[in-house]
Design brief:
Elements: H1 7-10, E1 13-16, H2 32-37, H3 39-45, E2 49-52, E3 56-57, E4 69-73, H4 80-92, E5 96-101, H5 111-117, E6 129-130, E7 155-158, E8 163-166, H6 181-196, E9 201-204, H7 228-231, H8 237-247, E10 255-259, H9 265-272, E11 280-282, H10 303-316, E12 322-323, H11 333-336, H12 344-357, E13 361-365, H13 386-398, H14 404-414, H15 417-420, H16 451-456, H17 461-474, H18 476-480, E14 482-486, E15 493-499, E16 509-515, E17 521-523, E18 530-536, H19 539-542, E19 553-555, E20 560-566
Parallel strand pairs: 1-2, 1-13, 2-5, 5-9, 9-10, 10-11, 12-13
Antiparallel strand pairs: 3-4, 6-8, 7-8, 14-15, 15-16, 16-20, 17-19, 18-20
Helix pairs in contact: 12-17
The structure holds 1-deoxynojirimycin.
Length: 569
């Protein structure tokens, strides 16, 4: 069965982290005019949609995911007029704009929270306040054992109010009370306000956490995020999202992608099936493969496990997939799934192939198209990430670690700052990102890894991305084709086939073979068909023209190949 067509299914999305993209005014922080300056570059990539991380007014405790005014632009990024210009310029280049929607929580600076604190005009009930007990020293005891996504108790005692409020993230990000119909209608009004301004959709932050069960029961203390079984996909999450869609998105030709924590493929289907409230979700199952024992471990991920997660979503989801390997919350993809040393170029191209040839809408993160890597951090003082720094603080306080050196390896790998170092435009000071002092350190490899160098080189990662995005937009089979996993147990080769039952297309059968390893290998791919090379990062050296024997294919380290399959002569 071929999925119904939609523009957002055919789109390739490029994620811009505004703080780190391009600084136009020398204050060290990226901004909207900076993005406008670089829009031609983004358009030249061939992408269709820009997803912009939060640009709303915010004290920036969690880099904009702590919003103090949903209808204003953060001062360091510019003004509403700059934002309107950005929207126009994006549309003028035939691209679309998707904004970040953060409505599980606000900043504690938000007027709603200020009024809630003061118990003004019915606002107390906009957030989740609970009386806790006190211990023998008179200190408040949290009302339940839930923890935050950044570690530590999810409750903070508010001295002014004398009770505690729930925050599933930083203590300055209080959770909104979605049980309150006025909260919901204020949020829907705000969503509608942005849609009416002409945006093309929303990426919805931790959207499956909005419904908390009555009584806020204790969670299983052995879970990495205590309480998650209660607040992920809570009792009314589906109902709230259906209500939201009916009041807002359903009236526009927009796209929605909901970030869903701890979600499996069946539950995701409830949100994204044909009559579900969302178009797509981001799940985390492949992001957790190297941290199955929690944030503080770096485990070796195995390719068969990655394949099995991918294949399950590719084949079992009742709805449309997203395809991503990294974003502003994750390590750099080439450092995590590829090789950021000797095979940086090859593995970055292989990962591009992975992203652009699965079934689902690909989400590319800024800088991956030039193979940006994790950053060598001099010290924890260089880090800005509220998550990593909070976890280190808690571990030091609890005595789990004696000093930072004990945490260094994990923190340097996992810190979200790895994805947030400035975009590397050229080899001038600060990688051409800013004339001032950057808010976060620039990766020292910018002298080699930068856009200008990629533009000047032949066969760069950048040109590979451009060509492959082009190919994807030409080949319906890469968008709408069915997915079939081959060689599920192979330790280093990931092979899959995409087929489209549509007599109108020229290419309806494609084989993708990825050698995700630093070792050359020979592999026999079980397809009975003529295989003609279509695209790849080693084609010149590894194949002759014409058809190719994939039953005995020699693959170079991190080699990626696409073949067109046709009936054997
Ligand atoms: C997910 C966002 O991607 C992340 O950056 C943020 O810290 C949390 N949600 C809380 O909003």
């Amino acid at each position: 069965m071929t999925a119904e067509r939609a523009w957002w299914k055919e789109a390739v999305v490029y994620q811009i982290y505004p703080q780190s993209f391009n600084d136009s005014d020398g204050d060290g922080v990226g901004d909207l005019q900076g993005i406008i300056e670089r829009l031609d570059y983004v358009a030249d990539l061939g992408v269709d949609v820009i997803w912009l991380n939060p640009v709303y007014q915010s004290p920036q405790v969690d880099n904009g995911y702590d919003i103090s005014d949903y209808r204003a632009i953060h001062e360091a990024y510019g003004t509403m007029a700059d934002w309107e210009e950005l929207l126009d310029e994006i549309h003028a280049r035939d691209m679309r704009l998707v904004m970040d929607l953060v409505v599980n929580h606000t900043s504690d600076d938000h007027e709603w929270f200020q009024r809630s604190r003061r118990d003004e005009d019915g606002y107390r009930d906009y957030y989740i306040w609970r009386e806790g007990d006190t211990d023998e020293d008179g200190e408040p005891v949290p009302p339940n054992n839930w923890t935050t996504g950044f570690g530590g108790s999810a409750w903070t005692d508010d001295e002014q109010v004398g009770t505690q409020y729930l925050h599933l993230f930083h203590e300055r990000q209080p959770d909104l009370n979605w049980e309150n119909a006025e909260v919901r209608s204020d949020i829907y009004e705000m969503i509608d306000w942005w849609l009416a301004k002409g945006i093309d959709g929303f990426r919805m932050d931790v959207i499956n956490l909005i419904s908390k069960p009555e009584g806020l029961p204790d969670g299983d203390p052995d879970k990495g995020w205590v309480g998650i079984e209660h607040f992920a996909d809570g009792p009314r999450a589906q109902e709230f999202l259906e209500e939201m869609a009916a009041e807002t998105f359903d009236n526009y030709d927009s796209m929605t992608v909901g970030e869903c924590v701890d979600i499996d493929v069946d539950t995701a289907g409830d949100y994204v099936s044909a009559d579900g409230p969302l178009d797509m979700v981001f799940h985390f199952e492949h992001m957790l493969l190297d941290q199955q024992e929690g944030w503080w471990t770096i485990e070796d991920w195995s390719l068969p496990e990655l394949k099995s997660v991918m294949a399950e979503w590719q084949t079992d989801l009742d709805g449309w997939n997203t395809v991503y390997l990294g974003n502003h919350d994750q390590p750099r993809i080439v450092s995590r799934f590829g090789d950021d040393g000797e095979y940086r170029e090859e593995s970055a191209k292989l990962l591009a192939t992975f992203l652009l040839t699965h079934q689902g809408t690909p989400f590319l993160f800024q800088g991956d198209e030039i193979g940006m890597t994790n950053c060598p951090w001099e010290s924890i003082d260089e880090m800005r990430d509220a998550d990593a720094t909070n976890r280190v603080r808690l571990a030091l306080e609890s005595g789990d670690i004696e000093d930072y050196d004990e945490a260094r390896e994990v923190v340097e790998f996992r810190s979200r700052d790895n994805a947030r170092t400035p975009m590397q435009w050229n080899d001038s000071r600060n990688a051409g990102f800013t004339d001032g002092d950057p808010w976060i350190q620039v990766n020292p490899n910018y002298e080699d890894v930068n856009v200008a160098a990629a533009e000047a080189a032949e066969d760069s990662i950048l040109s590979y991305y451009r060509d492959l995005i082009d190919l994807r937009s030409d080949l319906d089979v890469l968008v709408y084709g069915e997915y079939e996993l081959l060689l599920p147990d192979h330790e280093t080769v990931y092979a899959y086939r995409r087929t489209l039952d549509d007599p109108a297309v020229d290419v309806d059968d494609v084989l993708i073979v990825l050698n995700i390893s630093p070792t050359a290998t020979r592999v026999s791919v079980p397809v009975e068909a003529e295989a003609t090379p279509l695209f790849g990062n080693e084609l010149d050296t590894a194949t002759e023209s014409g058809s190719h024997d994939v039953t005995d294919a020699a693959l170079q380290p991190y080699e990626a190949r696409l073949y067109e399959l046709s009936e054997q002569q």
